[in-house]
Each structure stands twice: as C-alpha cells, then as structure tokens.
C-alpha cells in the first residue's frame, strides 16, 4: 500500500535507480517501485571492506567496555532507513535479518518517531513505573488500545514482561502454579506450614517437582527456567544448572512436502506418540507443553497444522497447558498476525508468549485460573514497560493503516515462488526450501551456509543463519517485491560464483 505522503517524483527517482540484473528473468526486473519510506535507499551500496576502518576502530573502542565477540556489525542508526542498515563507514545493506526478527515496520519509521514524542511516552520513560505497585493511572487504557488489540483469538488478558525469555519464564511460573493449585484442591485452599517451610529449602511439597515439556530443537530463551526448555545449541546451556524437564522429538520433515506426504505424516505421528508418553510417564509431572510454531533458532523446523491440532487435543486430554511461543513468529511475519492462526485450532492455546516485533513482551491468556491466587506470586519491579506498550500500539497502528500483514503474505508468496525457481535451477545450493504460505518466514539449507552469509554481507545483504546449515530470511513487514528482487539477484550471483 502506497503512503499518500510520498510524491510521484520521489517514486520516479527510486524507480530509475533500480537497474535490472542481466541474470534475472523479466518478471524479476525492477518496475516502478513503490516504497513505504521517503528516504529509503534504492539499493545496497558497499564502499569499503566489511567491517571498514572506522567500524574496526569503533569496535576496538567498544570492546574495552563491552564484550563484542558476538558482534555482527556496528550500525549507524541515524542513517538507517526502512529496510536498509547503514554502518559507520557509509556502507548501506539491505537488512533481511531485522535485528534477529525484531524490527516490524522499518528503521526510523516516521509514525513510530511521532509516537515517541507523545507526552505519555515521555512520562513513561522518565518516570518508569514499578507496574505491580505503582502503575500509571492510564495503564488500562494503554493496554486496551495497544497490546490487547493484538490479542490472539480467544484471549483477553495479558501479563507484561521485559523480554522474550522473561515472557516464557513467567508463563512457566503461571503454568506450574496452576498445576500445583489444582493438586492442592483449588485457589481457595491455603498453603500449609509444611509447604511454606519446605519452599525455603527448595524442597517439596512447597517446591514441587513439576516440569515443562519442550521439543528438541526448540529455543525459548537464556534465563534459568527458559534455558531449561531450550534445546537448540549446547553453547546456550553449557555450565548452567538446569531443571530435570523432558524434551520430546520435533518432526523432521522431508522436502519438498508433496513428495513425502506419507513419510512426514508418519514422522509427526511418531513425535506425538512420544510426547504423550512423556506427559504420562515422565518422573517429574508435566504442567505444560511449550512449542514454537516454527522452530527458529533450531533451524527453521516446521510441522503441519494437523500436528499442532493433535498436540492441542493431546494437552487437553492429559490436563496440561499448551503454551505457544510466538516471540519470533508473532506480529505478522508469517502472513497472519499470529503464526498459530494457521492451525485453525478448535480451542485456543492456554498462553501465547510474545516479544521481538512487538517491541514489548509478555504472555496472553484467557483463563482466570492462570492468575495466581495471591498477590506478589507473579511479580517483579518493572513487570514490563509502559513506554514499550505505547510503542507496540504505534506499531499496530502502522500495521493496520498499511495492511502490512496481508502485504507480507503477498510478498512472501512472491519471494517463495522465486526461490523455488532458484532451487530448481541450483538444486545443490538451495536445499529443503521451506516456509510456503508462511509469509516471509522462509528458510533454506545451504551446503556452504556460513560462507554464503559472509559473502552476502560483503555484497550488501544482511542475512541470518540458524541450526547447522539453514539460511533464515527475516525481513520486516515493509519488505516489498523490489527488495525481494535485490535479494534474489544477490543470491544468484553468489551461487554462480
């Protein structure tokens, strides 16, 4: 959808700057380019080696006071616009990773900039409330007009948090308190003296041995509770004590899907059977199952809607909660606002956690029994941030005004179709392409993944990896077909080299 504030002459300048690439079919050549950003570059521009001399010096300076070993690149955010990142040396990159999938509507988005100047935002920033004790008198209105406007179907309450890990951690607490409350006989039953004294020794019955079941390949955060459910990479978990919690197999689908329907159905059935067996037999009783709609850090692993429908039925049958971790998949990236909407569940999940593109964090829920029976049981000083809630409201306004979820579904279809053609042309280079009908939440395996990502950056495209050899695409909701064409050109160039 074209923003009416942008002039026709500006669009002409953008269109003239986009030159067709000789390797691309005419369907992928740049036509007249619309844009959501007046000052967005028309294409990448690389002036130095990456990192350049200024960035190298700045990195050395930063490393004196901050660990830079995981640094991807230093960014000049003043000069970054829309889908493009700038670095201190003046290099401009098309960003198809978006701050690990956490930027929804582009760098220096004008609507978000305007929202940041709202007096309510300023008050929240300079007087950051301890929300559990001293919430802003307007906080209910902030939530109802923002975060709760985005609530998944069937959900009408939220517990706000600070990060994705924090969102999952507090969801686990809610689930375990719910299960203990059931075992105790209901929310009105008081704690016994034995429960209170044993909890101070980290022992049962006050500190029961309930567990949260997660899936192999899943990633749910790096705090202690969330880390106990993370099963993606050893580097996250090494040296850290963990809860004795179960992990079920997640389906390992074969691609292309239409050629392996029987095998994939059997694989999903096997994983579901093992999941139910763990719920019924694991020595630490399971209070909840947590699952990502698409395992992101673990390699962009997918399962069918039928798998998740059966998982929902399985959790109901065994009286455990279903937590859907939408930290990375939520807020429009899959062509629906929440990825689990693709499943067509008859009964919604019990909790949905969110963060990243929302620029806020927390979990949605619907059952009043998921509120602890006493105050201070689900509590910390900040309990989220009203400034971030206001920002999420502005993001929602931008998404709604520009119809960005539908836009992302359309752009994702175009990008997937073009990648499918590239995959057929270079079958040894683009493997296991996945994400069909999931917006721009697309990935493929590469036999030389790390080299490909490094060379893509040097050519002006910032990509991300996950799992052992997956290239994951995480563009923003303002990513358009002409951005896709640039990405496709660069990929084909790199593959051919």
Automatic annotation (TrEMBL):
GO cellular component term of the entry, any: mitochondrion
Gene3D superfamilies hit by this protein: Aspartate Aminotransferase, domain 1, Type I PLP-dependent aspartate aminotransferase-like (Major domain)
Reactions catalysed according to its record: 4-aminobutanoate + 2-oxoglutarate = succinate semialdehyde + L-glutamate
A GO term for molecular function: pyridoxal phosphate binding
Family matches, as Pfam families: Aminotran_3 (PF00202)
InterPro entries: 4NH2But_aminotransferase_euk, Aminotrans_3, Aminotrans_3_PPA_site, PyrdxlP-dep_Trfase, PyrdxlP-dep_Trfase_major, PyrdxlP-dep_Trfase_small
Family label: Belongs to the class-III pyridoxal-phosphate-dependent aminotransferase family.
The protein's name in its UniProt record: 4-aminobutyrate aminotransferase
């Amino acid at each position: 959808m074209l923003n009416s504030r942008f002039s026709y002459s500006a669009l002409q300048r953008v269109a003239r700057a986009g030159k067709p690439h000789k390797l691309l079919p005419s369907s992928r050549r740049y036509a007249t380019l619309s844009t959501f950003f007046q000052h967005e570059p028309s294409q990448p521009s690389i002036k130095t080696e990456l990192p350049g001399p200024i960035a190298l010096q700045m990195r050395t300076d930063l490393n004196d006071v901050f660990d830079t070993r995981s640094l991807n690149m230093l960014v000049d955010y003043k000069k970054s616009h829309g889908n493009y990142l700038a670095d201190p040396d003046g290099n401009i990159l098309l960003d198809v990773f978006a701050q690990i999938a956490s930027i929804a509507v582009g760098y220096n988005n004008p609507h978000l900039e305007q929202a940041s100047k709202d007096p309510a935002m300023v008050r929240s920033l300079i007087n950051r409330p301890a929300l559990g004790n001293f919430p802003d008198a307007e906080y209910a209105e902030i939530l109802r007009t923002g975060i709760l406007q985005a609530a998944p179907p069937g959900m009408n309450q939220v517990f706000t948090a600070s990060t994705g890990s924090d969102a999952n951690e507090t969801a686990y607490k809610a689930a375990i308190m719910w299960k203990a409350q059931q075992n105790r006989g209901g929310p009105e039953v008081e704690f016994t003296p034995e429960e209170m004294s044993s909890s101070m020794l980290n022992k049962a019955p006050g500190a029961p041995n309930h567990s949260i079941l997660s899936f192999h390949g899943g990633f749910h955060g790096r705090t202690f509770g969330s880390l106990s459910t993370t099963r993606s990479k050893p580097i996250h978990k090494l040296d850290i004590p963990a809860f004795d919690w179960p992990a079920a197999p997640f389906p390992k689908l074969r691609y292309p899907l239409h050629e392996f329907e029987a095998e994939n159905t059997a694989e999903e059935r096997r994983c579901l059977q093992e999941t139910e067996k763990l719920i019924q037999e694991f020595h630490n009783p399971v209070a909840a199952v947590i699952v990502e709609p698409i395992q992101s850090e673990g390699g962009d692993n997918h399962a069918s809607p039928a798998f998740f429908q059966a998982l929902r039925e399985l959790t109901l049958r065994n009286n455990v909660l279903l937590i859907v971790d939408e930290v990375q998949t939520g807020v429009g990236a899959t062509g629906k606002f929440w990825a689990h909407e693709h499943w067509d569940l008859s009964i919604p999940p019990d909790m949905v956690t969110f963060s990243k593109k929302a620029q806020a964090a927390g979990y949605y829920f619907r059952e009043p029994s998921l509120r602890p029976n006493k105050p201070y049981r689900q509590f910390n000083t900040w309990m989220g941030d009203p400034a971030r809630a206001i920002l999420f409201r502005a993001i929602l306004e931008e998404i709604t005004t520009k119809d960005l979820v539908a836009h992302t579904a359309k752009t994702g279809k175009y990008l997937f179709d073009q990648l499918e053609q590239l995959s057929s042309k270079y079958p040894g280079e683009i493997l296991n392409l996945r994400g069909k009908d999931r917006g721009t939440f697309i990935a493929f395996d590469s036999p030389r993944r790390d080299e490909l990502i490094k060379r893509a950056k040097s050519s002006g495209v910032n990509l991300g990896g996950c799992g052992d050899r997956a290239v994951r695409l995480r563009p923003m909701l303002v990513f358009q077909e002409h951005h896709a064409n640039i990405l496709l050109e660069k990929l084909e160039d790199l593959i051919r080299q």
